[in-house]
Give the backbone structure.
Amino acid sequence: MLPFFNYGFHTNEEYYSKNGSGENPRFEEVNSYTLPITDGTLNYLENRNLEINLLDDNVNLGGINQGGQAVGDETELEDLIGTAYVPLRNIAKG
């Protein structure tokens, strides 16, 4: 297995991690973002989740999708292991 994760945060480019290895990989990557404090930013943080996708190009899980909804192209779905949703509202509260 060579899993990796990706996410998109606010207006920043989509981020792709380095590959992990093995069945229980540890991803020790830290990223930080500076955001302007605007009504739009606060609305984003109060109402959105950070969606983190765990994928593995070496694993074909064909036919898996998220809640019956198509996400990305078919190849990406075959590589998708799972998705975590992290609420961002606590960041808006400070």
Observations:
- The chain has one domain: 3-93.
- The two ends are 38 Å apart (CA to CA).
- The chain has a mean pLDDT of 84.
- The longest strand covers residues 49-56.
